[in-house]
Specification:
By secondary structure, the chain is an alpha+beta fold. It folds into three domains: 194 residues, no CATH class; 219 residues; 72 residues, no CATH class. It is globular, with a radius of gyration of 30 Å. The C terminus is likely disordered.
Length: 631
């Protein structure tokens, strides 16, 4: 890859390297071993120095943006570009400001290089650019803010050169996967890593190094920073490592990210996010399942009705072989969610007590505390120091007099907050894993050409709040869309979710025969006076969604319901609503069959009886999460 042409001074006259979009991009998270206190101290010092440089550039950019918006007459007379040039609002100007700050602070040059300062300045310019210029929707981002130390978690890396083989970046991964496995193999040949990895020292011969993987940062005044990489040792993760780490020429960029972890040395857990120019890893079983789904469901169209606590799914093959399914939460999962919510409330109360104890001047006394203080004052007793339990001092419109960002926080508060973030991240990851498994079962059973109503799920939180957060319909829809697109690619066509406007379809207010059947939100049973079709409201809406036709892809307003085709399939619709079917699990290890009963958790249940009365009433929270079990 080394350039063989003659090199000259000045701008590069060669053809710039451009990434091939067909190669794909994948990110692999590599854990860094910071058990060595010397290397951990150097990494923490690098974070401190980088934070000071970025804060200085942020202040400069923030003041320049304020001056830019204040210079109204100058912008009107001379143009915005000239004002930005005068104020130094450009990528190059911010990079030079970072260089100047680094040169004026000799103590920072021990831990921060100009390459890292340039990457930090580029990140600040990205935020300033979003504030100065409108996006495609015509909106601007808010004003720049000075980041806090605990929010500074990422050290941006520099992309490697794809035209020169030996060219240093800010962070670089050295070593090989084979060398790493050979170095940490036990007597039986199993891949086992010790609790504390040994320090790695290759001198200056990093280009020829082929040992265990290590993150290297060269060019520092105190010498090269070397951090050993800890790889997962479970057998299920080895194909993923082979996919990403076998070919070093596809390693593109590395960012170092830290996360608060009270259990880690120093209170932070460090990771290297390696960007690899390759497609994301897909296991052999997943590829086989998607290929089978692409063949078996090629002619099926799917409609999904999204609700607060369930998803109703209907599919058919040109009006034949109608299938109905439902996704709900089961009782064990509800119990886990209730336990998690209980722990979250306890942790939140502890956080509130800690904040109030250190910032008593920002809170009022409660009524009981105020009454007790007056009673003691009238009796001539000395006042008692208590933690105020009243509301925060605020203006008449409810805005706090002092921002929460200015509060003093204890070490215990930060530890509790880190535990809260870790618990929330774990729950989110588990929810996404379940959603992917549910999506695999739905697409395998119904198909990959899906239509749903164009609704704004975030707006539902204003009405149902916790119910929406517990069921997470948005996560399920995103997972189904991703799986459907992947199956569509395997089929050689286009798959995924298309959205239909509620104004042009009104699925919940119509019958497949074409008759308009008005219903309130509390009416959960569809009863058509024309064709005498009775069934669950959500299932009928899903059936109508499967007959939606879009004249222009990606335009919800172009959606129309093909009522003649739905009317011709009324017999099949009645049969599907009356027929009994088994339940099937949403995330089985193998492709899910419709008539294959599996265990509980999230359940995708086919509707058994359309004449069952659903006594939900008008409250969504009352029936949230219950398994629909027709009698």
């Amino acid at each position: 890859m080394a350039s063989s042409g003659k090199r000259t001074r000045g701008p590069n006259r060669g053809t710039a390297w451009v990434r091939n979009p067909d190669d794909g991009v994948s990110v692999l998270r590599l854990a860094l071993d910071t058990s060595d206190p010397l290397q951990r101290g150097r990494l923490e010092a690098m974070y401190q120095g980088a934070y000071q440089v970025r804060r200085a550039v942020q202040r400069r950019a923030k003041n320049a943006c304020r001056a830019y918006w204040a210079a109204t007459h100058e912008r009107n007379d001379q143009g915005p570009a000239s004002v930005r040039d005068r104020l130094g609002l450009s990528k190059t100007a911010l990079e030079r400001a970072a260089y100047a700050h680094l040169n004026a602070a000799p103590h920072l040059r021990r831990h921060v290089t100009k390459a890292l300062a340039m990457n930090l300045a580029d990140g600040v310019w990205t935020a300033a650019e979003r504030h100065l210029f409108r996006d495609a929707s015509g909106n601007r981002h808010g004003a720049l803010r000075i980041g806090r130390w605990y929010d500074f978690t990422r050290l941006p890396g520099r992309a490697r050169s794809h035209t020169r083989e030996r060219k240093w970046e800010s962070f670089r991964l050295h070593g090989t996967l084979a060398g790493h496995r050979a170095a940490y193999a036990d007597g039986s040949g199993d891949f086992v890593q010790p609790r504390a990895l040994q320090p790695i020292d290759s001198g200056d011969a990093w280009w020829k190094y082929a040992g265990p993987l290590a993150l290297v940062f060269s060019g520092l005044a105190d010498g090269t920073l070397v951090l050993p990489v800890r790889l997962p040792t479970s057998p299920c993760n080895q194909p993923i490592l082979d996919h990403h780490l076998t070919d070093p020429s596809r390693w593109h960029k590395i960012d170092v990210v830290r996360t608060q972890d009270p259990q880690s040395p120093g209170g932070w857990r460090y990771e290297a996010h390696l960007m690899v120019l390759t497609q994301p890893y897909v296991s052999g079983s997943t590829a086989e399942r998607r290929a089978r789904s692409a063949i078996e469901t090629a002619d099926r169209t799917v409609g999904i009705d999204v609700n607060v606590s369930n998803l109703s799914i209907a599919s058919h093959d040109t009006g034949r072989d109608m299938r109905l399914s439902r996704v709900v939460r089961d009782e064990p999962q509800q119990q886990r969610d209730r336990g998690r919510a209980r722990r979250e409330r306890r942790r939140q109360r502890a956080l509130d007590r800690s904040r109030r104890a250190l910032n008593r001047q920002h809170y009022k006394l409660s009524r009981r505390q105020d009454k007790r203080a007056r009673r003691r004052a009238e009796a001539g007793l000395r006042p008692v120091e208590v933690v105020p339990a009243g509301p925060r001092l605020a203006r008449t419109d409810g805005v706090p007099l002092t921002s929460y960002r200015a509060d003093q926080l204890s070490t215990r508060y930060r530890r509790l907050r880190a535990a809260q973030v870790a618990c929330a991240a774990s729950a989110t990851q588990a929810r996404r894993d379940r959603a992917r498994e549910v999506a695999a079962g739905v697409v395998a059973a119904h198909g990959y050409q899906i239509v749903i109503e164009d609704v704004r799920l975030p707006a539902w939180s204003a009405s149902w709040g916790r119910a929406v957060a517990a069921f997470s319909p948005g996560t399920l829809i995103a997972a189904i869309d991703h799986e459907a697109r992947a199956v569509g690619v395997r089929a050689g066509g286009s798959g995924g979710i298309e959205r239909a406007s509620t104004a042009t379809t009104a699925l919940s207010q119509h019958c497949p025969c074409g008759e308009r059947v008005p219903k309130r939100l509390a009416d959960r049973v569809h009863a058509c006076p024309r064709c005498r079709l009775r069934g669950d409201r959500d299932d009928v809406s899903a059936i109508l969604a499967s007959f939606v036709v879009l004249t222009e892809r990606g335009v919800p307003a172009s959606a129309r319901v093909d009522y003649p085709a739905a009317h011709d399939a009324l017999g099949e619709i009645r049969r599907a609503l009356r027929s009994a079917a088994s339940t099937y699990h949403g995330w089985a290890r193998h492709p899910v069959r419709v008539n294959r009963p599996l265990g509980p958790r999230w359940i995708v249940r086919r509707v058994v009886d359309a004449h069952t009365r659903l006594r939900r009433g008008g409250s969504a929270n009352r029936w949230h999460g219950r398994v629909f079990n027709p009698a």
